[in-house]
Amino acid sequence: MPLSALSCVLYALFLVFSCPALQGQEIPAGVYSYREKVGEVITPFYWKLEEEDQRRIVSVYEKEKSFINICSADGATWQWQLKDPDKKHDIIAKRQGNELKISGIRNGKTYEETVELDDRPWYQPLSFSLRNFLGSKEKSISFWTIRADTIEVTSLEVEKMAEEEVVVNQKLMLAQKVELRAEGFYSHFWHGTYWYRKSDKLFLMYRSVQGLPGTAETLVELMAEPGLHEKL
């Protein structure tokens, strides 16, 4: 697994993870604006949360690319869809018991694969799926996710760090900091750091270097909350 490819875990979303019920406020449904900065290159994107009974639909829109995630309220992913016309991708993944069935079009060709999982949860939109973990007493957990660039199913580990006050879009906020690592050999070489607002677990910021020493840092941060956008 190349180190430069690990950044896909931010974007790249049936079992319910057995943690206590969420505590605190819920994230308001609506459209949130973020930006990704890699060196001097800035890419804006939108993150949308919709509530439908027990389902939460988390959508990420970046230019012509989109990621649509259907999750339970606690963050476990049921279905993930990637659409990327530039790379000729239109892929859907669904969890059925301990099987992850992936099908669609990849690189313009028919693609189909079934991957065997264990009882660990599938978390695809980490901007949302870690909510249950953040509200639990657990120090660390591991879970399944799909790398959007290779459509490889892999396991990751996330660990809680200290709470911190961070400045996001010129606002000071109390946040829970967590670190994400690949399991196994690459855990010693790469990690990504996420910050979530303490009050409602809203994803605020992400930092990581996605390659060898000298590679520009990747920074993702919240720019605006609902009420400031037209409906997508």
Tell me what the structure shows.
The protein has helices at residues 126-129, 131-134, and strands spanning 30-38, 41-52, 55-62, 65-72, 77-84, 89-96, 99-106, 109-116, 140-146, 153-168, 171-182, 192-197, 203-209, 217-224. The protein has 232 residues and is mainly β. It has one domain (3-13, 30-224). A 14-stranded antiparallel beta sheet has the order 8-7-6-5-4-3-2-1-14-13-12-11-10-9. A hairpin with a 5-residue loop joins strand 12 and strand 13 (203-209). The longest helix is centred in the middle third of the chain and has 4 residues, at 126-129. The N and C termini lie far apart (35 Å). The model is unreliable at 1-24 and 228-232 (pLDDT under 50).
Give a topology summary.
Elements: E1 30-38, E2 41-52, E3 55-62, E4 65-72, E5 77-84, E6 89-96, E7 99-106, E8 109-116, H1 126-129, H2 131-134, E9 140-146, E10 153-168, E11 171-182, E12 192-197, E13 203-209, E14 217-224
Antiparallel strand pairs: 1-2, 1-14, 2-3, 3-4, 4-5, 5-6, 6-7, 7-8, 9-10, 10-11, 11-12, 12-13, 13-14
Quick description:
With 232 residues, this protein is mainly β. The protein contains 2 helices and 14 strands. The protein has one domain.
